[in-house]
Design goal:
It is a single chain. Helices cover 68% and strands 0% of the residues. By secondary structure, the chain is mainly α. The chain has a single domain, classed as Orthogonal Bundle (MetI-like fold). It is globular. The two termini are 51 Å apart.
Length: 391
């Protein structure tokens, strides 16, 4: 033992490095670099510009949030049966949002003029749609192949029978003129979203086609539709579609709007998909050709999966825009969700100064929940795909 110690001392005296047998226990990071304090310092006060922006944003929050909370929650009226309950009183001089109005009219906001005794059919449609969306959105769901069949075949047919009716099975016919509210908004946005993506993919492929006729048609359609506002497309669909079919086959007003919204959104979706196609390296096409894949197999198995993955943020952005643009269908006389609020706020039984603000606040919350949910799901899918790439 003494020989080993003598040898070690000799090596140290000779200037040789000493290697520690055990690593040093790492010290905790400084408080200013970790935890909440570290996050605040890094994200809010990392530079002079960030400090200035943080102060401005804090001032805006202090200026806007307290009055908003006071109007929507603290001074709000939650119970009542008429406008009298939402008017200022000596014992209640400041009246905020009249949520009693929303609670009283919630059925009208949801179903429109759909017959009361048949509204269970709308509820079943909402359940079917929610089940289909959950099945398709859950990436680890069992038998997603059956989910595709359910979402694109079974659910649309069942929903059509439920909502329109079929006397042969005891379901009374309900014309689309009686539909309204959230029902119309969900139907228009769902049909537009489901049909716009496949049509957009076909148009994007057509615009990149080597066949002049296909490319010319795709370019003309995309540029024409993108060059006019949605209101114009809705008017054209409402007025011109009946000219192409016999009068007895003339589509009803809601079907015309569905066609117009779908075609309008597909033009924008085509440009989104085309951007993704152009981002794919040429080597991917060449590799697919080298292994003998046909054009459609190359697109379906190699190119389109990568292109759609790249453009997920833009696809979701277009989808959110389409969901909000459904409010424009009231221009052609369709009673959507926002139109039911417009009709309800002029009801003499509820006519007070704060009714309009309450109705629009309720609409803003409704659209915010749906749009924020779609954006968060898109971020989850992006993170999931990025994790898959790293693996």
């Amino acid at each position: 033992m003494s020989d080993i110690a003598t040898t070690t001392d000799a090596k140290l005296m000779a200037g040789q490095a000493f290697v520690r047998a055990r690593p040093i226990v790492p010290l905790p990071p400084p408080l200013t670099e970790a935890g909440a304090i570290g996050w605040v310092r890094k994200n809010l006060f990392s530079s002079t510009l960030n400090v200035a922006l943080t102060v401005v944003c804090a001032a805006l929050i202090v200026w806007l949030v307290p009055p908003l909370v006071k109007f929507l929650l603290i001074d709000a009226v939650w119970t009542g049966t008429s406008r009298v309950d939402c008017l200022p009183r000596p014992d209640y001089p400041e009246v905020g949002a009249c949520w009693a109005f929303v609670i009283d009219r919630i059925n009208f906001f949801t179903y429109g003029f759909y017959p009361i005794e048949e509204r269970w059919r709308v509820n079943v449609f909402f359940v079917l749609l929610a089940a289909g969306v959950a099945w398709m959105a859950w990436l680890d769901a069992p038998r997603r192949d059956l989910g595709v069949i359910y979402f694109f075949v079974v659910m649309p047919v069942a929903s059509l029978i439920l909502l329109l009716g079929w006397p042969l099975i005891g379901l009374e016919k309900v014309p689309t003129t009686s539909w309204g509210g959230v029902l119309v908004t969900v139907v228009v946005s769902a049909v537009g979203i489901v049909f716009s993506l496949p049509i957009g993919i076909v148009l994007a492929l057509g615009r990149r086609s080597r066949m002049p006729a296909v490319r010319l048609f795709s370019v003309i359609f995309i540029e024409f539709v993108r060059g006019v506002p949605l209101i114009t497309v809705l008017f054209m669909a409402s007025v011109m579609l009946p000219l192409f079919v016999p009068e007895t086959w003339s589509p009803d007003k809601l079907l015309r709007a569905l066609v117009g919204v779908s075609l309008f959104a597909s033009a924008y979706m085509a440009e989104v998909v085309r951007a993704g196609l152009q981002a794919i390296p040429k080597g991917q096409y060449e590799a697919a050709m080298a292994v003998g894949l046909s054009y459609w197999k190359t697109m379906g198995l190699v190119v389109l999966p990568q292109a759609l993955k790249i453009t997920i943020p833009n696809i979701v952005n277009t989808t959110i825009g389409l969901f909000k643009d459904t409010t424009l269908v009231f221009i052609v006389g369709i009673f959507d969700f926002l139109m039911t609020i417009e009709a309800s706020r002029v009801d003499p039984n509820w006519a007070t100064p704060g009714i309009s603000t309450t109705g629009y606040a309720f609409a803003a919350i409704f659209y915010l929940i749906f749009c924020y949910g779609m954006s968060r799901y898109a971020r989850f899918v992006e993170a999931r795909l990025a994790a898959g790439d790293r693996r």
